Amino acid sequence: MKLRFLQTSDFHLGGGVLPSGHGFQHETVRLRQREEREALERIVEIAQRESVDCILIPGDLWDHEAVSFAVAKRIMDLFSALSPLPVLVVPGNHDFMGVDSPYHPHIAQQHGYAWPDNVHIIRETKWRSIQLPELPGVQFIGRATGSNVKTDERYLREPMPLDEESLHVLLFHGSQLEGGGRSVPSGQKVTAPFDTKEVIESGIDWGAFGHYHHQQVLRSPDERLVGGYAGVPFTRNFRDSNEKGVIVAELEKGGVHEGSYQFIRTDFRRYIRVEVNLSGASDEPEAQSRMASAAKTTRCTEQDLLQIRATGRFGAGSFWKPEWTGDPIAFDVAIDTSRLQSGFSIENALREAPEGSALGEFLTRMKARIDEARQNEQTVKAERMQLAAQFGYDAFMGEAPRLKAEGIDLVAEVTEIHPADEEYGD
Questions:
Q1: Residue 276 shares a structural domain with residue 334
Q2: Is the pLDDT of residue 13 over 50?
Q3: Distance of alpha carbon 30 from alpha carbon 253, whole angstroms
Q4: Are 168 and 162 in contact (CB under 8 A)?
Q5: Confidence of residue 157 (pLDDT cuts 50, 70, 90)
Q6: Any idea of the CA torsion for 251, 252, 258, 262, to the nearest 10 degrees?
Q7: Residue 136 above 90 pLDDT?
Q8: 327 and 181, same structural domain?
């Protein structure tokens, strides 16, 4: 018995397509909204082209409990387009399962909608087994999370109702941990944890897992693939990294052979962020030059969305709203000045320092050294002392300096992430 399947999850519909307030053009947001629909349509096309036997979706079809029924209907229409292909779903931690959840058939009917007959949803929060007439010899086991509440319970250690003669396919939304440590992606919440050993000892042949937003596979000691995360099929913010797509594989007893495993892309844009400190920039051309140099380090392409996050002290701070003047190195470039502080003046800082304070004494001594360096025409030394005075002032005021420096050359700290710091889609 073999089972050819497509696995996808973590659609997070209703969660937006770009982080708000980050400065991308309205046309770019509208484009990404259209591309979100195209990514979902691409899943249907891949399933049909690859002649899969079923589709596995381990959770987080939408992003929050206030999901509109218009969004829920998009899911229903998508699955209806796959009919009669079986679609198996277990709700994840973002999928509201309360009394008003669209997952409940009677609630959908109240709004004039209906789940297609080819969709099989495991709504129970205890292990449930499903066997479909059109897929004899295959047993699907799953349990819903259905609540965005952290849990440390090790559900995979609980007995599952396994039929020994069947292929066993698990659908589960949770966090893979390894050994005594964690393999949790940065910023991801831990919920319903498990490890590879628990997957193997459970007796299943494949674990279709949701929750993590990047592709990841679990291997047995004999190098069989025994489970995996497909990740998100569409990039939504700066934390989602790596390629976006779906898993297509052929399962037999004991797992998936490497040769039958495919990861097929469904979204082709990256969200890239680069951080550049503008402290010490003398004017706007120099600030723009630093941003252009930082942008080049990202190696972004004409498909990508690039955000330049300006930090440090420069000009009018967050009130400065520059436009990108560099080469057209990305599809769209946004400049975020929300973390930029206004320019530093040691004279103004001295006037505002409390009389007799340690801050005032520090600034007085630093100003004397700066003036001495300028009088001796030691320009580089004066600039270094000016930066040192600024960093010392920031430290007195409780602001941690965020700068790398070589001499007085400021080096951008580059972070590449696909949809960073925002909590999203855990």
A1: yes
A2: yes
A3: 45
A4: yes
A5: very high
A6: -20
A7: yes
A8: no
In this prediction, what percent of the chain has a pLDDT beyond 70? Answer: 89
Q: Within this chain, do residues 333 and 227 fall inside the same structural domain, yes or no?
A: no
CA distance 287 to 322: 10
Whether the predicted pLDDT of 411 surpasses 60: no
Q: With contact defined as beta carbons under 8 Å apart, do 156 and 172 qualify?
A: yes
pLDDT of residue 184: 55
Dist CA 151 CA 147 (whole Å): 10
Average pLDDT over residues 110-126: 91
Q: Strand 255-256 to strand 244-252: parallel, antiparallel, or no bridges (unpaired)? A: antiparallel
Tokens at 205, concatenated: 């042949």
Asked if 23 contacts 322 with a C-beta cutoff of 8 angstroms, the reply is no
Domain boundary among 213, 248, 267: 267
For residues 185-189, average pLDDT: 58
Mean pLDDT score across all residues of the chain: 86
Same domain, 224 and 323: no
Other CB atoms within 10 Å distance of the CB of residue 111: 13
| Cis, bond preceding 322 (omega within 30 deg of 0) | no
223: its two tokens: 């190098």
Q: Give the DSSP per-residue string, 252-305.
A: ETTEE-GGG-EEEEEE---EEEEEEE-TT--SHHHHHHHHHHHHHHTT--TT-E
- What's the pLDDT at 414? 42
d(CA 368, CA 372): 6
Which CATH number is 86's domain given? 3.60.21.10
Strands 332-336 and 305-313, by their bridges, are parallel
Which residues span the domain enclosing 97?
3-267
3-state SS class at 365: helix
